Amino acid sequence: MKNGLRNSSEILIDNEKYIEKKVNALSIYNVYWCLYELGWRRQLPTETVLKNDSFCKLQLIRILKEQRYSVRSLNIFLEVSAENSIPLPYVKWFYEDARAALWLKMVLENTINSSEPIITESDISIFIHDVIFNKKLLVLNGKIVDGNSDSRIAFKKITLEKLKEAYLLSQVNSKDIKWLTSKSKSSVKINHIYKYMNKLHDLNNLRRNKESKKKNGGRKTNINKAGCQQALICSNTINFKETDTAMRLCHILASLDYWMFDTYWLYKEGDVVDREKTDNRMLFISNMEDVWNSKHRRDRNKIKKNQGIDLTNDNKKNLKHLAKACGKTQREILNDLVESAYKQIQNQEIKLAPSFPNQYKAFDKITLEKPSSLPSEHTEREVISEDTFLTKDKQELSSDYDAESVGSSTYDNEDVPAETITPKQEVQPFQPFYPKVSDRKPAEDKADTNTENYNQL
């Protein structure tokens, strides 16, 4: 009896190990189909197959162990599950493509009222999961419905295949949207177009309105607002954040693809295609590009304006004064200065040196009403030098007098030579605002006065 119990426990352990081995070897996609089969057998605790990629294998292992699946029964179960599943190639066109998944979301929302909100990329994954494992899709009288059927998997395969055909035919040509999908200014561009498509447009009469406007000489015609609609499909349930530009781009492209869904649903070769709807979509894409180019041009001009020449506050005031004195705009003054300076450089009238002495030469051709007479830097340096020289003379005179005790100064009968500083660079013929230096000899009086003081001592 004990041997029998030990053997059964060993068999149970072996079965559990076999379950773990087989389940861990399955892909996540096939694990969900196993859970779907358990739900069909009423062995799944929930009514639907919930998406949980991290724990779905653990969930399947736990249920199979609780149901005491043997090696043989497990193999049969896995075979039946594979037969009642939809192979990955049937769903791969939207299973791995967010744009196609959003297009399918738009189709189902407008047919079977599939109104699950999609705000993030994770919501797209949940929607895809529900379409594959929880929705019972089939085509009935040319329309997509969600209903019960004994051949649920077979009908869903057919429905998904027809949806794939319609999607591939409805897609916008990649060449027409190359300007939109390029990486240049992608985030700003996508967000601007996203807002533009959220506005109301007369989408069904774009071509007619354009032709009518051309006939009226470019004047806009009155548009019936009642017939306007948003170009961004399902904007109430699909709404991505401004920072999620990748998903916003998928939403934009999916909306443009959905434009032609009614035309290509159940399309057969030889069927007449609504050319007006095709032309309206092409015209709208062209309008989108024009809107973005206008926005890009405005932003570029704004940047150029903000990146103008940065003058100091004093130079701004001086420029304003020059413009007022010459009766010109500040822009014209700057252009005149640059043009004048450049011509003089070409004619070798201005030779640039390290100290740049000819910095005022550019103002030659501008006539001022009252040029100001400001003191020259050279004059100030001369005065300072003369004061310094006289101070030294005083000190020398004082020391000589104490040594010789002479009753009269050495400079009583002669003038004190005044020292002048010669500029290092030769002064140009035109020197605005430079006053002439006086020829007076200030050192003579000072020397005599100093001598008298010494005599008094």
Structure, briefly:
The protein is 58% helix and 3% strand. The chain has 457 residues and is mainly α.
| Count of strand segments | 4
The average pLDDT value, as a whole number, equals 80
* Gap between N and C termini: 145 Å
Question: What is the helix/strand order?
Answer: HHHHHHHEEHHHEHEHHHHHHH
Radius of gyration: 46 Å
List low-confidence stretches: 373-386, 388-392, 396-422, 424-457
- Helicity, in percent? 55-70%
Strand order of the largest sheet: 1-2
Tally of helical segments: 18
User: In terms of quaternary structure, what is this?
Assistant: single chain
Query: Which percent band covers the strand fraction?
Result: under 5%
**Structural class designation:** mainly alpha
Into how many domains do the coordinates divide?
Answer: 4
Question: Sheet bearing the most strands, described?
Answer: 2 strands, antiparallel
The global form is: elongated
How would you describe the overall organization of this protein?
- This protein folds into 4 domains: 2-85, no CATH class; 95-302, no CATH class; 313-363, no CATH class; 377-456, no CATH class.
- The radius of gyration is 46 Å and the shape is elongated.
- The protein has helices spanning 2-24, 28-40, 56-66, 71-83, 88-95, 98-109, 121-133, 152-170, 178-181, 186-198, 206-215, 245-258, 261-264, 275-306, 313-326, 330-346, 377-404, 442-456, and strands spanning 137-140, 143-146, 200-201, 229-230.
- 58% of the residues lie in helices and 3% in strands.
- It has a two-stranded antiparallel sheet.
- A hairpin with a 2-residue loop joins β1 (137-140) and β2 (143-146).
- With 457 residues, it is mainly alpha-helical.
- The model is unreliable at 373-386, 388-392, 396-422 and 424-457 (pLDDT under 50).
- α6 crosses α7 and α10 (186-198) packs across α12 (245-258).
